[in-house]
Amino acid sequence: MLSPEAGPSVARRSGSVGRSGSVGRSGSVGRSGSVERPRAVPRQDTRSYRRLAGTDIDQAMAFFTADYDLKAPVIRRTRPDTLWDFAGVTDERMSLRTSRFGVDLRSQSQSDDVIVAWLRSGSSTITFNGRAVDLVQGVPMVLPSELYDLHHRDVGLNLVHLDRKFLTDLVGDDTFAFEPLERPDADGLRVWQETVRRHSSTWLQVDTELSAVARRDIAEAFATAAVRAFPRRSSWRTAVSGSGPEHQRLRRALDYVHAHAREPIGTPEIAAAAGLSPRGLQQSLRRHLDQTPGELLRSVRLDGARDDLRRADRDETSVADIARAWGFGHLGRFSAAFRSRFGELPSDTLRSRLRR
Question: Same domain, yes or no, for 67 and 134?
Fold first, then answer.
């Protein structure tokens, strides 16, 4: 069954899904083969159930490579008998899945879905944009949407797939994305586990029809829990796509600017942090973001100033105080740049806090 800590153990044997989300014994699997037993569900219910298991590596790789878009996988046996299995209950908005693969697997992967994964057993390392993160048993994490490297070792994984358009439509932002490889804080973890506990067993009862309204409510509950649990990816991070060395250096430059924008930094400091020459930084920024280092820094500082103005107490601070804190020495030029970027004066932004 799907527990909030361990995740969606959708099935252990082929057969019908019971009320607790466990699976009965109505089918069996040979030691060297695999079977798939799709479950019939009422015509109005669009969920489908799939269960495969076996010991044949070639069959396992044919399935996992297609289902998870594995690229150039490299496999090493870790035991004489390679046990593997997969089970999932899916509709057009979401999928609860569990999988196990008793090998050492290195590959690359990516998905059109938003995938939240957490470890049941074994170990797994995900590497994206030069950063390697180990999955922690029972702790969910959003996988990257772009191409990433994976290293699974006798892994048991639990996964929730959310349709990306369904999620962005729900949020009301076509550019919405999660910051990959970030774990939730304590409150976010509690929200996610509570959602898993409340809705998973109902989702897994494929022999019991769910209405369209009920299915949508469950999918929205999981999507909303994900939005509450996981950090949102900042638009400046999504602006740089790709995973080559230049993309990584440019992201380091962006990280540095956002971390140090209040300080007296300029092109030399940004270039050094990125591992580029000043000229190389200028070329890279122009090529990928159509900005100069000065324009990037000014843009980040204006965004920071606006955030501070929107949170500030008018009786305790002023536009001039915030402008100086963000490195703007001339109030008139700051106001003009602010109005050009945001369509209002900084004093209007500060006053708007009193109306909210």
Answer: yes
Q: Containing H/E element for 153?
A: strand 148-162
- Asked if 94 contacts 161 with a C-beta cutoff of 8 angstroms, the reply is yes
Q: What is the CATH number of the domain that holds 81?
A: 2.60.120.10
Q: Which residue has tokens 């153990």? A: 9
Residues 156 and 264 in one domain: no
With a threshold of 0.85, does the pTM exceed it? no
- Asked whether residue 225 falls in the same domain as residue 321, the answer is no
Which residues fall within 8 angstroms of residue 277, CB to CB, at 6 or more apart? 271
Handedness of CA 302, 306, 312, 315 (dihedral sign): positive
Residues 177 and 141 in one domain: yes
| CA–CA distance, 174 with 350 (Å, rounded to integer) | 28
Collapsing DSSP to helix, strand or coil, 108 comes out as strand
- Which residue positions in the chain have pLDDT lower than 50? 1, 4, 6-32, 353-356
Number of compact structural domains in the chain: 2
List, for residues 118-144, the tens digit of each pLDDT value.
Answer: 999 999 999 987 789 999 999 999 999
Q: Are 70 and 63 in contact (CB under 8 A)?
A: no
Contacts of 97 (CB under 8 A, 6+ apart): 8, 10, 86, 87, 88, 89, 90, 158, 159, 160, 161
Task: Say how many CA atoms lie within 13 Å of 94 toward its Cβ.
Answer: 23
Q: How far is 257 from 305, CA to CA, in rounded Å? A: 14
- Distance between alpha carbon 73 and the CA centroid of its chain, in Å? 22
pLDDT at 314: 67
Q: Which pLDDT value is given to residue 354?
A: 44
* Residue 51 to residue 147: CA distance in whole angstroms: 27
